[in-house]
Amino acid sequence: MFNLLLNRRSNITSQYKQTLQKINQISNDMQSWPDIQLQQQTHKLKKYLKDGKSLNNILPEAFATVKETCRRIKGLTMFNVQILGGIILHEGNITEMKTGEGKTLVATLPAYLNALKNQGVHIITVNDYLAKRDSEWVYPIYNFLNISVGLVEQNMSTELKKFNYQQDITYITNSEVGFDYLRDNMAINQNQIVQKDFNFCIIDEVDSILIDEARTPLIISGPSYVATDKYKKSYLLSTKLKETKDYNIDEKAKNITLTDEGIIFCEKFLEIDNIYQIQDPWAQYILNALKAQNLFIKDRHYIVKDNEVIIVDEFTGRIMQGRRWSDGLHQAIEAKENVQIQNENHTLASITYQHFFLLYSKLSGMTGTASTEAQEFEKIYNINVKEVPTNKICIRQDLPDLVYKREYDKWIAIANECYDMYQIGRPVLVGTTNVEKSELLAKLLNEYDIPYNLLNAKPENVKKEAEIIAQAGQSNTITISTNMAGRGTDIILGGNPKEMSKLIIVKTIQKPNKDFKNNNDTYKDLHIEIQSLIKNMISELNQNQFFEKLKDQTISSYVEKALNVREESNNIDIILQNTYKNILNIYTNIFEEDKNKVIKLGGLHVIGTERHESRRIDNQLRGRAGRQGDPGSSRFFLSLEDNLLRIFGGDKIINIMESLNIDDQTPIESKILSNSLNNAQKKVELHYYDIRKQLFDYDEVLNSQRQAIYAERKRILKSQYIRDCIIEYGESTIDEILSFYFNNTKDRSANHILINDIKQKINTILNLPPEIDNKCIRNMEIEEIRLFLYEQFRITYDMREAYLDQLRPGLVRQLEKYYLLQQIDKAWQEHLEKMAYLRESIGWRSYGQQDPLTEYKNEAFSLFINMITYIRETVSYLIMRSRLVMDPQNIKM
Ligand code: ADP
Ligand code: MG
């Protein structure tokens, strides 16, 4: 194991050895440079690029520039492994670097280099908190080098978003960047578009985004009719049905089927002949109600907040605000929870993360855990995972799993372990799979009367996650956390003095004076010296009229900025900086002492309470301990009643346990079981991989169509002169009609009947003058007819144009754009619905030997062609008859 690690270390390091040496040498030379010279690097490097050098040519100098800037501004010297990570990112790979190795800084290296091209760089994080925290933390480095930094947040105005997207480097969350893309492609006016190019992106916590979140596509939906009664009635009905008699549950596939008896019962209850009737179908509603009842559990799969059902991500334990389950399932759960049933999803636009991120010319990512999913990254995203060794060798002890027969005994054992650790003072982090289980453990610990911090997916706790995680390494601290709550924040043994000092300042400013006078809880536990520092700060800030100028919600960023200013500090900045420095000194001493104590005790102890659906998630949890060469340990407690073993384990494990004939309280160390366990886990990984792969394959069809539609839309939006496009649409409509009528006849000249048909059709759609002479075209060949009709169309169009121009100058151009976009959007939305229906129904049909995906592709193609034809026809129709259709005064552009 050790050898393997060293080998890997030397492999990857030797591959980049020369570049690394060069970077370090240049940055060493730069140490003697004055600031101004270092700052001119950006200009100089951009010039190199203009003169024809490539990014790779200038990589060593650019990286050295960032390294030296970081040393000056942040006082941190980047480790070789960090620089290595940066090179790997620049090459468009995934850098696997463990938690606490300093990936936030790693990203600055390739971000700076790629920003020199002036095409933008996106740094993607999993939540708003991290986007803000990371951008603020590295801002001084970029700022020093004259590189602008943007931060895009939810609910920002269009103007502000646009501004931030235009910066050299933009920090943003995965969902916001995806939704902005969809919204941009629904814009009916060019100034509503906020995004620029998709040049280079670095995805932080890349596995969470490209694997976990990739199971659900991003969807923008609008309201449509909702059958509230049906959901309610189905829910009532579902409570009367009995498992196995009326229905069966397939937990693995998350599916439910009705038995014949169940179907008869439903039909009687609803007083209908057939629950599958086409006109007014019920089956879907009943099945959803049963799923809501049996497979979706409150506080595990979803929470209810403010009368709303909100999805909880099974893997991460995070709530997924705004996401909804599709096909009526969400409504069924709303009926079950007796909250307001919201409108059905009517999809206006959608994209999967898989296809969204493939839009970037170069994609890269970083995380602590990617290698178990390396294959998927390669197959779907065409991106390689490269492991970077840790800066210091990891000495964490991963203890063998303990397996109990019953879940109950497992939890008692976990609580006991927490108790023991608390007694000796060692910090413990317990990872649970859901809120319900976190609370169960919390109750047990209450009985033992030991304190703990609880982090879970509930919104009121989410804000505090990072703060609590940052201090989870202090002695005598127990932290219970659903899966990856607080992801992105590393646990420092003894506590994180910087975070703590900052927090105290922010909290004080948020509630000045009043708490102080009352000397209430917030401050009474504080170190006496810190109390007086804070008092001083407040009175000094008061003297500078600070509080009158400040708005509440900006305090934390205000403080963050003030602490990072190097030059041009104003009075207030200086007060804050000094207080911070002094508090930091005190905490650093206190925490240093505690750190030594915790290290002696063995570092952070991580407890897993269940194997997760993928080894990667288990590794994430384990990786919380043993950062930067710290001591630490991890242990998983399992039981035969755990989901993984119950659903995917099979009988083998139970047989082993039975044959060992041990009592309930005695666990077995699972060396014997580990094979079966690993197999079960691999089955689950594969299962979820299949789901994602299927989503990807099916979305691929839609994706090429989406690209085509979005490209057409963009062309129209950008175009100043759309007349050509309308003419083109009209001509294709003529082609379409001609080929329809001439396809079935060998006679290339038109006969009488044909001519009448064509004329009528063309007249309906294109509004050509009725006096087109029958005789004239009767003897023509098809090509001649085509040209003749083209010409007629142009003439008629010119006349329409003149007419509309006379109504209001410029009107025709506005109408053109408006009709085009409106029709494209409408047709596309209808198309999306048809595609969703097709996708669903393709599973039901049987095709003999035919592969459903192939069938789906074929049908999707003809649906698409129909849509395009339809768009062209309607646009031509509307333009040629616009007077009848709308009042020109009311066009909103
Ligand atoms: P990761 O994202 O890899 O888990 P972070 O970027 O959050 O790690 O950094 C973890 C901590 O390590 C931060 O507090 C950061 O200040 C610190 N750090 C990063 N790089 C260095 C360095 N070269 N020297 C010292 N400390 C560093
Ligand atoms: Mg990080």
Account of the protein in words:
The chain is of the alpha/beta class. It folds into five domains: about 250 residues, P-loop containing nucleotide triphosphate hydrolases (Rossmann fold); about 120 residues, SecA, preprotein cross-linking domain (Pre-protein croslinking domain of SecA, Alpha-Beta Complex), CATH 3.90.1440; about 180 residues, P-loop containing nucleotide triphosphate hydrolases (Rossmann fold), CATH 3.40.50; about 90 residues, no CATH class; about 160 residues, Helical scaffold and wing domains of SecA, CATH 1.10.3060. Helix content is about 60%, strand content about 10%. The protein has 38 helices and 22 strands. Strands 15, 16, 17, 18, 19, 20, 21 and 22 form an eight-stranded mixed β-sheet that branches. Helix 5 crosses helix 7, helix 14 crosses helix 15 and helix 32 crosses helix 37. The termini are far apart. Adenosine-5'-diphosphate binds next to helix 7. The site of adenosine-5'-diphosphate has 14 residues, from helix 7. Has a central role in coupling the hydrolysis of ATP to the transfer of proteins across the thylakoid membrane. This is Protein translocase subunit SecA. Its EC number is 7.4.2.8. It is found in: Membrane; Plastid, Chloroplast stroma; Plastid, Chloroplast thylakoid membrane. InterPro entries: Helicase_ATP-bd, P-loop_NTPase, SecA, SecA_CS, SecA_DEAD, SecA_motor_DEAD, SecA_preprotein_X-link_dom, SecA_SF2_C.
